[in-house]
Amino acid sequence: MNRMKPLNPSYAAKIADSFRQQAVMSLLGAKLTRVEPGVVDITLPFRADLTQQHGYLHAGIVTTIADSACGYAAFSLMPADSEVLSVEFKINLLRPARGETFVARAEVIKPGRTLVVVRADVFAAAENGAEELIATMQGTMICLKK
Amino acid sequence: MNRMKPLNPSYAAKIADSFRQQAVMSLLGAKLTRVEPGVVDITLPFRADLTQQHGYLHAGIVTTIADSACGYAAFSLMPADSEVLSVEFKINLLRPARGETFVARAEVIKPGRTLVVVRADVFAAAENGAEELIATMQGTMICLKK
Amino acid sequence: MNRMKPLNPSYAAKIADSFRQQAVMSLLGAKLTRVEPGVVDITLPFRADLTQQHGYLHAGIVTTIADSACGYAAFSLMPADSEVLSVEFKINLLRPARGETFVARAEVIKPGRTLVVVRADVFAAAENGAEELIATMQGTMICLKK
Amino acid sequence: MNRMKPLNPSYAAKIADSFRQQAVMSLLGAKLTRVEPGVVDITLPFRADLTQQHGYLHAGIVTTIADSACGYAAFSLMPADSEVLSVEFKINLLRPARGETFVARAEVIKPGRTLVVVRADVFAAAENGAEELIATMQGTMICLKK
């Protein structure tokens, strides 16, 4: 699924640049931790000000990193003169989002000239390194010509 | 659809209390602006540090207020000794999330003892008061007994 | 939401024609029962050979009429030289699909040149005429130029 | 993900029995072709009376086999005295559903006492045996005690 060829040789720089412009990533403390053709990871350390009423990471914040990871996984396969936007996504929250660090791992399922279908798994890592799948997203991204 | 009877007469106080415990709502600057049986609004003023790469509100933040509104709309119909969690949701991003203020309006579609199906529309209001539908969510919430 | 203007004055004939070509509609016994700009109903009488293991209409058949209704609601707003395809949809099954007749009522939420976002509610009608909402779908259709 | 232990040692017989009671499977010509703990395949040969307006398998029929495969994958992990129902699912239609045979391969992502999250990929096989992923579903099933 992942041996996908980027149309834009500078895809990694373009994604890093776009990520820096996502002001909300900096507010949340999220980092871009992997960028390959069709595959992007975003990592978010736990912070008490990102939580819901039980002290776990809010489902919307889980979704925020999963959505950006999906968008950039799709973007990595788009031509140089394009923009990416989320059309829609669906996420299942599988377990309470508790942990020290959260990683959203997105992967393109089906590239396309206009629409790109992407999946992201979100893992929570405990202090001892144990990882647990806490959410899974399936979504659709669109390629817009600048 | 909305003439739903709350099982917990103090549902509004319980929701206000839970909302205060969602630390992320305070980080984002979101407010609970309507609480009725089966219907909840959450309002979020635009802030530059909540944006994606084009300067619009990030889809994940749109989703965060829609998810909390859905959760509390469902919670308003649950018994006193219960908790609410998001099982899953799907959101379509319909237009760029630009505006002065954003309102997520959630409404219960189908109450149930265990699962509650909810919809939320998210509107962006311009400075001149014009409102535009920018996103719509359909999701499932679960009632957990404490 | 529904005062939408069709770009193709013969949209109703084009939809009726396309519906006749959906061989599966005839296999299931489904009929096109309402065609307006942005709004389409498909009606399906109950039949024992359309059921799942408890004798209710199979969720996939509920989905089949909801998907076609969504596709044609979107198609009603598309230009003459276009085709419609389903990109994706999500459906919540709200109640057991029992009844004499099922109606999927689709409505365009957000028209667009390429993508059209649509919702469908599916109702079951009992012999005495009482209607119950049994499912609700939210989906995305794409306009392809011929 | 798949080394899941069935709670009901006769899960395979129970699924085969339930499948035979899904009258619509027989109408469509679908067969249960793999039953393992947490994993179920359903196979459907192409038939002209299952098509949409372009002569491809209708998205609703693709969905019907994916939904049943998901339901039975979840059911394989449920206790003996239970029933399974679809709560909701979302499907992306990735490519035109053309081929000689279609296989929906479902796999449990997250088992649970009440809710089970499942994924299904649907493949189309051409006469020469080449397989193509045409759709992917993510859904939620519920376990009901009899």
Low-confidence stretches of chain A: none
What's the oligomerization state? homotetramer
- How would you sum up the global shape of chain A? elongated
Number of helices of chain A: 3
Order of helices and strands of chain A: HHEEHEEEE
Q: Which structural category fits the helices and strands of chain A?
A: alpha+beta
Overall helicity of chain A: 10-25%
Radius of gyration of chain A: 15 Å
What topology, given as strand order, has the largest sheet of chain A? 1-2-4-5-6-3
Largest interface, with Cβ-Cβ < 8 Å? A-B, 35 and 35 residues
Termini of chain A, distance in Å?
A: 28 Å
The number of strands of chain A is 6
Percent strand of chain A: 35-45%
Let me know the average pLDDT of chain A.
96
Largest sheet of chain A: 6 strands, antiparallel
Short descriptors:
homotetramer; alpha+beta; 6-stranded antiparallel sheet; 146 residues
